[in-house]
Design brief:
Blueprint: H1 32-47, E1 57-64, E2 67-72, E3 86-90, H2 107-116, E4 121-125, H3 128-136, E5 142-146, E6 163-169, H4 175-188, E7 196-199, E8 203-208, H5 211-232
Parallel strand pairs: 6-7
Antiparallel strand pairs: 1-2, 1-4, 2-3, 4-8, 5-6, 7-8
Helix pairs in contact: 2-4, 3-5
């Protein structure tokens, strides 16, 4: 019998849908490259078990002045995103036209990363290690990762003799309140480089100047979180 990944139902293809044969809505067609980039990343993260079910959300910045984002629509399977499973939102997280689907409930957190951290792309995942370590280190306010070679995959780090601090915020369905906590942290720590943060028993937010850098940061941080988690289990 052919074996399957534990998170891959046999009835669902593990290959992305062919992009060449798909039809984009007229308002999305000019952004087909950005959309397909997000879809490929979504499928990759789903395959790794970091974005299962309808969890996670991803975005890219398409305008800076004023800020406008292209973000995944709410309730979509991130491993099998369709060409029209995306929404345009403004700098306040509002959908820019009434005929679009609902955007992610956490859209405001993407807006904050874009406006306050210079993000060109934002990725949010729900891996096992991010979820469990966010609980384990919550009372410390964050998680510091030191002296790993993989730290050099984060923007601005050139030696393993460095550290990455990931603040941890409590989980809540009140996203404006969570956004306020994130902004308060950024205001109070202007000298502390921030590559992302954890939400307790929820997952990881990270970003980069573009989608490629955001994806690299995600992979690096997820690797480091797993190293930390496996060390704690010894």
């Amino acid at each position: 019998m052919k074996s399957t990944s534990p998170h891959t139902p046999p009835s669902i293809s593990t290959k992305p849908v062919s992009e060449a044969t798909e039809v984009f809505a007229p308002h999305l067609k000019p952004y087909a490259d950005q959309i397909n980039g997000l879809r490929r990343v979504g499928h990759q993260l789903w395959n790794r078990g970091w974005s299962l079910g309808t969890s996670s959300n991803y975005s890219v910045v398409i305008d800076r002045n004023p800020i406008r984002l292209l973000i995944t629509a709410s309730g979509k399977d991130k491993g099998h995103l369709g060409p029209n499973d995306f929404v345009f939102v403004d700098e306040n997280g509002k959908v820019t036209s009434a005929d679009q689907p609902k955007s992610s409930a956490e859209t405001l957190l993407h807006c904050t990363a874009a406006s306050r951290c210079g993000a060109g792309a934002v990725l949010h995942t729900h891996s096992v290690w991010a979820t469990t370590l966010s609980q384990h280190f919550f009372q410390l306010g964050g998680l510091r990762i030191d002296d790993f070679e993989m730290l050099k995959g984060l923007d601005g780090i050139t030696t393993h003799q460095s550290s990455c601090w990931l603040p941890i915020f409590d989980n809540t369905q009140d996203i404006p309140a969570l956004q306020a906590q994130v902004m308060k942290y950024l205001d109070e720590h202007p000298e502390e480089k921030c590559w992302g943060y954890l939400i307790r028993r929820h997952g990881l937010y990270t970003w980069g100047k573009d989608l490629a850098e955001a994806t690299r940061h995600l992979e690096v941080i997820e690797f480091l979180l797993e190293c930390m988690g496996r060390t704690l289990r010894r």
